[in-house]
């Protein structure tokens, strides 16, 4: 029996806001609520008939436990609509979509609100464990003498904070940051610093051009903060980006001789994205206008120290399942965690030895044409809110297919911890 078709009937995201050294104007739930409300306002006849809400998020705040449910309640949706949160690191948003596809294909749901969100600028600062022990001892002390004995043990160094975001972006099994893994695969495929910088510059300039061409007018919902400030665009883009400017930046993860810099890496950012998925039954019942179909995602695992090559492994599984070749895909969204990581993936796709040894293929998959890849820039320019990105690249692929009258696209990304995810998006005639 063939799998049920899963349709996308609407999709919307927030602008992506670059983190600038302090908590941004919106929490994750703020962004998710504002974006979802705008999306649901475009589909008022079916809002109360949503079967469930699924949201990807890596690090919600302490007061955002099961953030999907919190968002549903803040939207004043019927309390009978269940909601659940998923986490697969950088692919959390794609996992939410994949979970929604599964629920619909299993017949458990007909309408699902699914997406991803992250407010990386709100990642917590943590106390050292020694300071936590000190506070516990102080709380246990009963008499003044006992309290003074504990207080005498205090040292200013106990107050040095631990940056939670850096912990989350480090793989404890291989003791490497994500940037260090990018250095490793760039070295493996001999990706040069100039090639990385050139890719980064092009990402920014492509996004600048897309903004000037109003490519995102139906994709992005503007946000207002409580002071009335307006946020309309992905604000991390640098229109003046150039090879000369990037060449001045120093290596961040492999000092002093590395190639990965802040300029050719994805930006730390905040953002939210939502898609409304429906079964064929729901499309007919509510007379909905489908804009795309989604197939189940394909997931792959690999050496965590080379996690940036995850898109190659996941896409390999997807193409084999659908019996397609690279040239059968009209457009690609390959998330730009790092410029060097994307270039390493492109090199791996075209490398016969890598494909034979690591993917068990007879020959290389071949080259992905650059004119079909991330045509409006990527995370190097717009940012990579980790819980959002998997949903964003799928959402943007839907708009790319529509704008270019194309049929088929692949959205894929690497995942911290040594995984990759890939999802097929197809246009509806």
Could you please describe the fold and organization of this structure?
The chain has 429 residues and is an alpha+beta fold. The chain has three domains: 146 residues, Thiolase/Chalcone synthase (Peroxisomal Thiolase, Chain A, domain 1, 3-Layer(aba) Sandwich); 37 residues, no CATH class; 170 residues, Thiolase/Chalcone synthase (Peroxisomal Thiolase, Chain A, domain 1). Helices cover 37% and strands 18% of the residues. The chain contains 15 helices and 17 strands. Strands 1, 2, 3, 4, 5, 12, 13, 14, 15, 16 and 17 form an eleven-stranded mixed β-sheet that branches. β3, α2 and β4 form a beta-alpha-beta unit. α4 packs antiparallel against α5 and α7 packs across α12. The longest helix has 20 residues. The two termini are 24 Å apart. The mean pLDDT is 96.
Features:
Peroxisomal Thiolase, Chain A, domain 1, alpha+beta, 18% strand, 429 residues, eleven-stranded mixed beta sheet, two-stranded antiparallel sheet
Secondary structure topology:
Layout (H helix, E strand, L loop, with lengths): L5 E8 L3 E2 L9 H14 L10 E5 L10 H8 L8 E4 L5 H14 L5 E9 L5 E2 L2 H12 L3 H8 L10 E2 H5 L1 E2 L4 E2 H11 L4 H20 L10 E2 L5 E2 L11 H5 L21 E11 H6 L6 E3 L3 E4 L8 H13 L8 E4 L4 H11 L2 H8 L19 H4 L3 H18 L4 E8 L3 E9 L2
